[in-house]
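From the pipeline queue, job 12 of 40. The input is one protein chain; the requested action is below.

Action: predict structure.
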Amino acid sequence: MKEPFLSVVMPVYRAQEYLEESVRSVLSQTFGDLELILVDDCSPDGSGTVCDDAARRDERVRVLHLPENRGAGRARNAGIEAARGQYLAFMDADDTMDPDIYEKAYQALKGGSRDMAVWGVTEEYFDRAGELAYTNVIALPDADCDTRQKVQDTVILLEEKILFGYQWNHFYRMELVRDHRIRFEESVIYEDYFFNLEIAKHIRSMAVLSAPGYHYKKRMNDSITTKFIPDYFALAVRRISSMTELYRGWGALDGQAREILGNMYLRYILSGLMRNCDPRAKMNGRQRKNWVRELTASRLYLETAAVCNPKQMPLRILQSFLNHGNTASVLAMGRAVYLVKEKAPLLFGKSRKIT
């Protein structure tokens, strides 16, 4: 059987309600030289049956039934091991795509001469009743990064838009993934980002598409993005730190990179302050104060967030409070954001848009 150009890996867990639409979104792409690998991560609902039905209907579909639940990262790794394509892509089991986005990405690869392609995202926010409340489009202009220098110049711009940290808006050259043994690590969040960080160390060319062809469904339910994650801030710090070190290693930790990373870090700090107010954090007032003091004394803070020029007024205020040691005001900001998130989650989500 002829090997496909593209292998699409979709981890599946508790996705029965949305799975058929997501599978159809892949199989109805105008670019059809692909295989879809559905990785049933020992899902307790009827998702496994939906996967098997899809395989019976379309010979491009293959199903892996894992014997135990391993999490999305390990499920993707199982799909990578089974993939046969020249390029690799991923898809979440509750999202959709524009029908021509793979065709556009294929064309941008210039006949397979680019190591990676990345495109924009349409975030779709749903209320608790399941109704679409609003959308947010995130994209960069089209760009053909045909040199290593252009790749380095563009990665930080993708990270600023949060486009770098997703896996489902990318095509990856499979040879790079296999030769360098790049796999998803076991992490509650940001496993996509750390996968892409390893990819960035090796690619020499990249295509960027302005088309926001991936539709990321953000639902007000018990998904991983709405749960309380104890390690959230530590992982966020690792994200900023690892990108800082990547650019330091490239000799490119210049003013623009510091500005972008500093602004991102301030957003994570505000989010960390908010999470510290959650009763599940089990932090008292003294612990929250010490958290702030340790943060402002760190090297990462001092070389990024402390010296950047925040674009948004709340971040300017936060930076001023942090830099002047006004811990009480810093904690009050965190409490205010926490209350907004608890009382008006859709408003909170809207206020965090990346434009």
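Job complete. The chain has two domains: 6-219, 232-342.
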